[in-house]
């Protein structure tokens, strides 16, 4: 399971990296990286963080229940 | 071993939905502008809810054919997650409506139908919890669940198409609420359907977690 989480996280990094690439095409000093395109990437980062957080939570819940099932 | 590939599929699909859903180019339709992206988040709530309550219906029918406690638990928990998604669908719809139709509640036939359908599903839980006899509770709940489903379908899928509606697909309004044919732009389709599958799988995941907790609790009670 840990492996999958690392894989997912690295996938997320790839998305951020591509975001930066497209941003550099029209780069100005103030609007590069996550600040490009009206800072929409910041919103993407926020909602993806929330989604990942919820998934980490549900995975932990899942494993806790699995442990209980093994004991009973 | 418990299968978990579909849980990973859910994570991947929803990550894709959240990233691509905000970043792809979308067509400009009417006064929607960027809010058209809500199609990737609001509409899959209802598609997911529909699939979850359909699973619930199937388990209710199975319970009536063969009264296994497991079927009853499955039917209840899938209906529960379905109802939660329905509530989220209603709230997100009201937010969207406020900025495109001018008010959160417009007495749109689909809004009314969805609200009534949700109340009917709430009554399912009230009815279920009002009975202490397990066998009777299971059977009455299953019968009511089948009734609820067949009220729910006309409420959200048939009636809104027969009268004038602000939603796509109503009388005199373009588009198909079932997204057949050309009514869904192809660029939107590549995010929309993965979103539906991702939310449905997440709903299934939460439902099965609840089912497992309920099963554990029952085991403790009866052993």
Explain what the structure shows.
The complex is a heterodimer of chains A (72) and B (223). Chain A has helices spanning 2-25, 36-71. Chain A is mainly α and 72 residues long. Chain A has one domain (2-71). Chain B is 73% helix and 0% strand. In chain B, helix 3 runs antiparallel to helix 6. Chain B is globular and about 60 Å long. Chains A and B meet through helix 1 and helix 2 of A and helix 1 and helix 6 of B.
Q: Helix coverage percent of residues of chain B?
A: over 70%
Structural class by sheet pairing and helices of chain A = mainly alpha
How many independent structural domains of chain A? 1
Binned strand content of chain A: under 5%
What's the count of strands of chain A? 0
Instruction: Characterize the overall form of chain B.
Output: globular
Task: Supply Rg of chain A.
Answer: 18 Å
Order of helices and strands of chain B: HHHHHH
The computed structural class of chain B is mainly alpha
Low-confidence stretches of chain B: none
Count the strands of chain B?
A: 0
CATH topology of chain B: Four Helix Bundle (Hemerythrin (Met), subunit A)
> Which band does the percent of strand residues of chain B land in?
under 5%
**What's the overall geometry of chain A?**
elongated
**H/I helix tally of chain B:** 6
Which stretches of chain A are poorly predicted, pLDDT < 50 over at least 5 residues?
Answer: 23-27
Question: How large is the radius of gyration of chain B?
Answer: 19 Å
Taken together, the total number of domains of chain B comes to: 1
**C-alpha end-to-end distance of chain B:** 25 Å
